[in-house]
Amino acid sequence: MIFRDVLLILCLLVPMALGQAVEIQLAEEGALAEDELIFADDLFTDAFDIIEDVDSGSWRDGLTIRLSQQISGQVNHHLVEPIPGYLLSKHGDLENNRFGINLRYQNAFALGWLLQGSWQARAYWSGDYVFTTNNDNIDTEYRVNELFVQRSLDQQSVKLGRQTVVWGETVGNSALDVINHTEYRDFGTIDIEDARLNQWMLVWDVFKDTGNWSSFINLYPEFNPQPVVGSPFYVSLPYEINDYIRSDKTLFEAGTQWSKSFEGSDIALMVAYLYENQLRYPQTKQQLIKSAALANDFVLLGLSANRAVGKLLLTADIALSHGVLLDESTLSGGGGFGLANNIKKDQVALSLGFEYGISNLQSLSVSIQAKKMLDERHGLAAEHQLTNKGIYGSWLVRYSNQVMNNNLSLSATMQGDLEGDTGLLFLGADYSVNDHWQISGQIISITSRKTSPLSIFDQDLRLGLIVTYVF
Fold first, then answer.
1. Does pLDDT of 49 surpass 60?
2. 3 state DSSP class of 389
3. H helices of 118-183, where?
4. Mode of pairing for the β-strands spanning 156-163 and 253-262
5. Would residue 165 be called left, alpha or beta, if left means φ above 0 and alpha means ψ between -120 and 50 degrees?
6. What is the CATH number of domain 2-470?
7. 361-410 confidence digits (pLDDT tens)
8. What angle do CA 243, 249, 250 make, to 5 degrees?
9. How many CA within 13 A on the CB side of residue 362?
């Protein structure tokens, strides 16, 4: 079985010290963590400290510029059978050939004030699927990833701008990490923490001895973008799908979380009114050429906790989603097409995991997420086929190691679904030549059964190389 095989691979990888908890960064367009644009979790640890002197002339000190060139593609020739009796020949080919510029900036420009932002631009050269779909012409795109201002005063903090809100304790596989939308453009951004996108939000944090409160409001909720034409996840449809028409309804999201720390553990309770990140598209009749997007609102109730035992950190997340539509997603993050009806249901989800610090240079983490749709067949026609039945979900394993005086970071990441239908193996190596130059290499191997929506990627082997210059 695939599940058994990937676990066997893990047993071989760990003793060989292949791995590191760096993210698999294939410089995917739209990925928040792309080219290491993620800021440390403790960035605001000193937000309430008094700044004796603010040097307005040193604003450039907080600016970092990263230039990168990426080449990657599917390299092995093989046959797949996505539909019984239909054999598809897959040839090795270049998928990504792109140059990236990333800017990130942070500046505590006044007492209690912080400005932080990041921006990216991409140029797609010959051989990249974006180049091909642009009539074999060089294509470019750019966007603001993160941009917010923070005001800290006494025991409160307010942040306004493009940002993320992360709930839950199980890193990379939390049932509660559903607030920000995501983009899975390429195989370099399978993990939700890599694919998570920023949104325009107001976040208000209050810190008290009785517990901390964190609340947010989002007046412009966004949805998962559809796969880009030509990308591995793109599927050609016989009809056109539209974005959500916002004039039909005023959208907003809001939520609050209460958390408290104890000796060796943390606990949090949360509630939010949200919209599902994945738009849904009802089945269309043959005479129609377009399908209107359906945005579905629901209520999320959550509980999260962790417990530290020596070098081991145990995590747990529980989510109850009231009023969601049938989950038709897959491991790749797609789904939402061919919606048979708009019957709302309740879904329960559980995430369990542990993180183990083997040493200062090595770490191991394992997590599992399980979901179940309550009364999943209620209101459905007998011929309706469910994408996910009963209990379903995913697992994630990571191992990391740093060698050669921390100049070389090795990584191994595996993930798949609970049924063992699909498995993905990521191997990565990041070598720092000096303070400015870095070379990264990745290997991605995919296995999938014929019954999986990802069967078209079975036996795919992808190699990638990224050269980065930072100043």
1. no
2. coil
3. 129-133
4. unpaired
5. beta
6. 2.40.160
7. 999 999 999 999 999 888 888 877 787 889 999 999 999 999 999 999 99
8. 105
9. 10
| C-alpha count within 13 angstroms, C-beta hemisphere, residue 11 | 6
Residue 18 has pLDDT above 50, yes or no: no
For 11, the 3-state DSSP assignment is: helix
Token pair of 285, please?
Answer: 């009749």
Q: Is the dihedral of CA 241, 247, 248, 252 positive or negative?
A: positive
Choose between 173 and 242: higher pLDDT: 173
Decide if 26 contacts 195 (C-beta within 8 A): no
CA distance 228 to 235: 9
E strands in 154-292: 156-163, 199-206, 212-218, 240-241, 253-262, 265-275, 281-282, 290-291
All structural domains of the chain with their residue ranges: 2-470
Give pTM, 2 decimals.
Answer: 0.82
Least confident of 52-56, 103-107, 359-363: 52-56
H/E element, 129: helix 129-133
Closest Cα to residue 457, out of 423, 426, 427? 423
Token pair of 164, please? 């993320």
What number of other Cβ atoms are within 10 A of residue 260's Cβ?
Answer: 14
Distance of alpha carbon 353 from alpha carbon 314, whole angstroms: 6
CA distances to 169, 250, 296, 432 from 203, in Å: 19, 20, 23, 36
Tokens 């609102």 — which residue? Answer: 297
With a cut of 70, say whether residue 191 has pLDDT above it.
no
Rg (CA), the chain: 23
The residue among 316, 321, 391, 398 whose CA lies nearest residue 356 is 398
